[in-house]
Every structure is written in structure tokens, then in C-alpha cells.
Specification:
alpha+beta; 570 residues
């Protein structure tokens, strides 16, 4: 009975030791993180405060005679050591393939696991950096060996029994985290004698926040300081005027991937927001306490006001929900209540530290927190596969453009030409595609078996039986026919143009002739009237009746003589 109980306990211990633990790691683009191998499982809780308290200590120390081996999703060895350094490259101005892969193709199998001094640094695990663009998961396995005392030869280990201990699977999810900047401003009269007080306080806090143990990254990414002035309207008596107020400003860039919980917390939930708020609350209290100790005057300390605001800056092509930073004034009274729930940093708990992609066909143009997504200009596009991208909208290939603004994919890029050229090229491409079908569907020799129909996979396969000479003659015939048809169409076009021109010239000639006749008739009438007025003995002028037969001829001959001697006189 005791033997069975011992066997059951041993089996249970083996199962517990060899159990798999799954962790989801949120990798911010452009960051470098350190991932320890031996971790406990996360404890879920609805409250973000309780979640942080329960998962504060996840790391487990390695037992003696054990080493960690890291494998990719294909089972290839990528690293040996307790800590895996992972770097996610920034996204470039190009589309990223949806295929996930590891950039390192060949695993370091050429180095054997031994204790030779030249390989100790490599086995230590802190010198290898895994470059990642897209990756599914990695697995860390703890390899434990039995203890052996003594060596047979120098630097040659004895054969020891080994077994697989705990196995931890890390699933990577890459997202874009906004650039986080904390800004603090205080009146310059407080730091009039020593302007290095604020930078020194921030640097001290950053040194205290540096992770301990096997972490290699800092919480503060950079510190800047400057002196600013602005005009404030004031009232003196009955006249309005302005006064200049100077203040000292300092900004701190925050890295929310320095600690283990930062990369295990879901950025879309309140867990990462709570960690962010707790960090800022710690710095707020540290600066207020430091300024109070620097002033050393109770009355002046009560007048101290420290203004703070938080910036979230997303790359082009994305935006954040927290666009306009809100200025919050901190006073020394805040030191009396140092709890996070009642402090000014508690508003950061609900902030989602994510950069959301703009809708298809839209993007931002610069690193900013207030710019909204606008349509991609003509000749650019942006779709689902174009995000993330550091350039926002992507340019169409050379020689192509879009019909309008807001292109959503590369299929919207058309040939930069007219409608006729596009239709001709579309026809040519369709013809080439049909010819490819003919080539792909070429059949073999005729046979009487039933499998012939199975070999003819294309509907165009019957065209493959036509000999090459027929295709050459048909091509020559088509070219000659096309040439003759083009010549005929050209000559017909010239004939129609010439006929239309002759018709226009003929019309103009008729109009000129008609106008000339009208002018001649009008001149003759005027001259006849003038001749009648000059000859009062003319019987026709006084209305006498005469014989028309003889007189008309004499009058006409006389008028013709006068018209010849005095042409076109009125």
C-alpha cells in the first residue's frame, strides 16, 4: 500500500513539473524587451489593482543543474539561457506580409552545450538578440541534469542524466503603442536660484525605477527641459494690460515595456492603464515632496502649483482616443493623501494605450496627437495590409495613379493614361492571359482511354492541338488585315474630311456670289434714280405713256453708256 502511494505521489510531481504554462506577451513595435523563462501562471482578477498585486512576483528561480532552451514554433533552437531578449522592429513604409516568420533562419546549432569558458557568455543568455517582425510563439523548456562531482578530462563534462522540467509557451502579439510623454511645469520664481532641482528629481526617480535583477531596460527613455513664457491679461485701475509669466517645463518619455507586467498586461484593458497611472502617481508625489523640501518655507510651499499633462503621440496612419491632453494642477495638499485612487493620476486607468489604425483609404500625415485621419491623396492608397506603416498612405507604383482620393488598396491604382490607352492595354492583357491558358492547357497525343478527359483540365485545351504554322499564318494574316484595315479607315477619314471641306468652301462661294449680285442690283437702282432726276424731259419720269418697244431700248443703251463713263457714282 505504501509503495502504491509513493508511486502516485511521484507521478503527480512529474505531471506538475512537466505541465505547460501559457503566457500572452504584448510586444510594442520598436521596443526591446527581456523575457524570463521560468514564470508562474497569471492569476486573473476583475479589479486591475488586485491583478497587479497578485501577479507582482511571477519569476521563479532556476534550480541547480538546470538550463533553459528556447525554441520557435517550428521546433528549431533559437537560444539557450534564462533570459531571451526580443526586439520588435519599427514598421517601415511598405506593406507587411501576413505570413509570420522568424528573421533568423539558421539556429545556432554549431555551438555545443558545454562549460568551456569561451562559450559561457553565449550560454548565459544575455548576449543573443532575437529580431522579430512577425512571430507566432516561442517555447522555453527547462532542462535539468543530475549532479556529478569531478571530471575525467579538463573542461569535459561527464555524461549525466537529464530530463525536461517546466515548459512555458509564450504567444506574441505585436501592437503599436503610442509615444508617452509626461510634462511638468512650475513657475520660474520657485527655481530662480537653482534650475537643476526639477531635472535632478526626475533623474533620481528614473534611477529608482530601473528594474532590478535580470532586467535590462529603463522606464525613462529621455528627459528634456526648457523655459517658456506666456502673456496673461491683468487689470490696473481702469486700463487693461498684459504681464509676462515665465515658467520652467520638463518632459519625460516613458517606456511601458521595461517591466515584465508591462508586456503581460492587455493594452486594451485597464491592467496596463493601472500600471501607467501608478507610475505617474509615484513621480508626482516624488516631485512635490522634493520641491517642498527645497523651498523650506511653509507659506511659499502652500502657494506651490505643479502643472502636469500627458501626451499620447501615434505614428502616421493611426490615431489615439486621448487626443487633447488635459492640464492638471498639483498642490502640496496632495501629499496628505498619497493613495492612487484619489490622486490626479487615477484618470489614466481608463486610458487605452493603443494606436488605432485609420479606416481604409485614410491616414494621418505626421506624428501628432490632435490630427484626424484624412483621405489619401490621388496617387496614394492605404488598406488593411498597409497597416502598420510609418508613412501612412502608400504611393502607387511608378506609372500608376488612382482615379480620385481615398484609395483603399493597390487594386485602385490605375495606369496613368487616358481611357483609350487603358482599354487597349486591358484588351492586350486579357489576350495574354488567354494565351497563358492555352499554353497551360496543352494536351498530349490523342488516345482512346477514358483518362483523356481528366488530363484536359482547361476549356482551352483543344487549341493546343493546332500546329505552330497555323498560328504563325494566322498571326501574319491578322497583322496584314489590321494594317490594311487601318489604311482603309485612314483614307476614309481623309475623304470625309475633304468632302466636308469642299462642302464648306462651296457654301462660302455661293454666299459671296449672292452678296455680289445684291450689291450690283442696289447700285443700278441708285444710278437709275439719279439719271431720272437729272433729265426732266424724260417722259418716263413724268408718268407719260410711250411705246415700250423702241423707247426701252434707247433708254437702256443710253444708261449703259453713262454707266460706262461714270462707273459706281452716286
Amino acid at each position: 500500500m505504501e509503495t502504491q502511494w509513493v508511486l502516485l505521489c511521484a507521478t503527480y510531481l512529474i505531471v506538475v513539473c512537466q505541465c505547460k504554462i501559457h503566457h500572452t506577451v504584448w510586444l510594442p513595435a520598436g521596443k526591446q524587451i527581456s523575457l524570463p523563462c521560468k514564470l508562474r501562471a497569471l492569476k486573473e482578477h476583475e479589479s486591475p489593482e488586485r491583478w497587479v498585486e497578485q501577479n507582482e512576483e511571477l519569476e521563479v528561480n532556476f534550480s541547480a543543474n538546470s538550463i533553459a532552451a528556447w525554441y520557435d514554433r517550428l521546433g528549431r533552437l533559437i537560444h539557450v539561457g534564462e533570459i531571451l531578449l526580443v526586439h520588435v522592429a519599427k514598421f517601415e513604409a511598405s506593406e507587411i506580409s501576413v505570413t509570420q516568420y522568424v528573421l533568423r533562419e539558421t539556429p545556432p546549432t554549431e555551438k555545443q552545450m558545454s562549460l568551456i569558458p569561451e562559450f559561457r557568455g553565449w550560454i548565459g543568455g544575455a548576449n543573443q538578440l532575437l529580431q522579430v517582425k512577425h512571430i507566432d510563439s516561442v517555447t522555453c523548456i527547462e532542462l535539468q541534469t543530475s549532479t556529478v562531482v569531478g571530471f575525467r578530462k579538463p573542461w569535459k563534462a561527464l555524461q549525466r542524466k537529464s530530463r525536461v522540467g517546466r515548459e512555458v509557451v509564450f504567444t506574441f502579439k505585436i501592437y503599436v503603442q503610442p509615444i508617452i510623454i509626461w510634462e511638468y511645469a512650475v513657475s520660474s520664481w520657485i527655481l530662480m536660484e537653482n534650475t537643476s532641482v526639477m531635472p535632478r528629481l526626475v533623474e533620481e526617480w528614473c534611477q529608482d525605477q530601473r528594474p532590478y535583477g535580470r532586467q535590462f531596460h529603463q522606464t525613462c527613455e529621455g528627459i528634456y527641459q526648457e523655459r517658456k513664457t506666456f502673456l496673461q491679461p491683468t487689470l490696473f485701475g481702469t486700463s487693461n494690460s498684459t504681464s509676462t509669466i515665465a515658467f520652467f517645463e520638463i518632459g519625460v518619455g516613458i517606456n511601458l515595456s521595461a517591466r515584465l507586467l508591462h508586456v503581460l498586461a492587455d493594452p486594451a484593458s485597464k491592467e496596463l492603464g493601472y500600471l501607467h497611472a501608478r507610475l505617474q502617481h509615484s513621480l508626482n508625489m516624488y516631485i512635490l515632496e522634493g520641491l517642498e523640501n527645497y523651498i523650506q518655507d511653509g507659506d511659499l510651499a502652500q502657494k506651490l502649483v505643479l502643472a502636469t499633462r500627458t501626451h499620447y503621440v501615434c505614428p502616421p496612419g493611426s490615431f489615439t482616443l486621448q487626443r487633447k491632453p488635459v492640464v492638471i494642477n498639483l498642490t502640496v495638499d496632495k501629499l496628505m493623501n498619497r493613495t492612487l485612487e484619489t490622486s490626479s493620476a487615477s484618470v489614466l486607468i481608463d486610458h487605452k494605450l493603443l494606436c488605432y489604425p485609420c479606416p481604409d483609404g485614410k491616414a494621418t500625415t505626421a506624428y501628432t496627437f490632435s490630427e484626424e485621419c484624412s483621405d489619401c491623396p490621388r496617387g496614394y492608397y492605404r488598406g488593411e495590409t498597409g497597416w502598420p506603416s510609418s508613412a501612412g498612405c502608400l504611393r502607387c507604383p511608378e506609372g500608376f495613379t488612382t482615379d480620385g482620393v481615398g484609395g483603399k488598396s493597390i487594386e485602385d491604382c490605375r495606369l496613368n493614361a487616358g481611357a483609350l490607352t487603358r482599354s487597349i492595354l486591358r484588351y492586350v492583357l486579357h489576350l495574354l492571359f488567354a494565351l497563358e491558358k492555352i499554353i497551360a492547357g496543352e494536351t498530349g497525343p490523342d488516345t482512346q482511354t477514358r483518362s483523356l478527359a481528366l488530363e484536359q483540365r482547361s476549356a482551352w485545351a483543344w487549341l493546343g492541338r493546332i500546329s505552330g504554322r497555323v498560328w504563325i499564318y494566322c498571326a501574319i494574316y491578322c497583322l496584314v488585315s489590321s494594317y490594311l484595315a487601318a489604311k482603309a479607315i485612314h483614307r476614309l477619314h481623309v475623304y470625309l474630311r475633304l468632302k466636308a471641306l469642299i462642302r464648306k468652301q462651296y457654301g462660302l462661294l455661293l454666299r459671296a456670289t449672292m452678296i455680289g449680285q445684291i450689291n450690283l442690283v442696289s447700285h443700278i437702282k441708285q444710278r437709275m434714280k439719279q439719271d431720272i432726276k437729272e433729265d426732266p424731259n424724260d417722259t418716263l419720269a413724268h408718268g407719260a405713256t410711250v411705246e415700250v418697244s423702241g423707247v426701252r431700248e434707247s433708254i437702256q443703251s443710253e444708261k449703259m453708256k453713262k454707266s460706262r463713263s461714270f462707273p459706281f457714282n452716286s
